[in-house]
Amino acid sequence: MMNRHSMRRTAAAVVLAGGIAAGTLAGAMGASATTSADYGYGQSVEGRVVSPQPLNVRYGPGTGHWITGTVNNGMHVWITCKTEGTNVGGNDRWYQLADDQGWVSAYYVNNYDYVPWCNS
Question: Higher-confidence residue: 97 or 41?
């Protein structure tokens, strides 16, 4: 059971990652499935964070870029594209979060569909 402090941090992570808490709650309650287009993100792909600790969101695709925030384990994120960056756990793919909110290592995100390559 989550305490009030944990719930606030979780809600903040949803906002940071571009998710919408109401949409996640509606989906969990059996409402019709939501897509990234429902939230105005165009062709974004939904993913879920699978990190034992809060996942760092970075300014660029690699561990050498500064941390701009974090996303907690289990949170849903919207991904716009992937590119190569710093190797993390044998995976050099990095996902750009929707709405230019930063980059996360693909090693810690299970994507629900194909993520296209970023246009360089």
Answer: 97
Burial of 33 (C-beta count, 10 Å sphere; 0-12/13-18/19+): exposed
Burial class (CB in 10 A: 0-12, 13-18, 19+), 98: buried
**What does pTM read for this prediction?**
0.66
* Dist CA 17 CA 47 (whole Å): 10
Domains annotated on the chain, with CATH: 4-111 (2.30.30.40)
DSSP state of 8: H
Q: What end-to-end distance do the CA atoms of the chain give, in Å?
A: 44
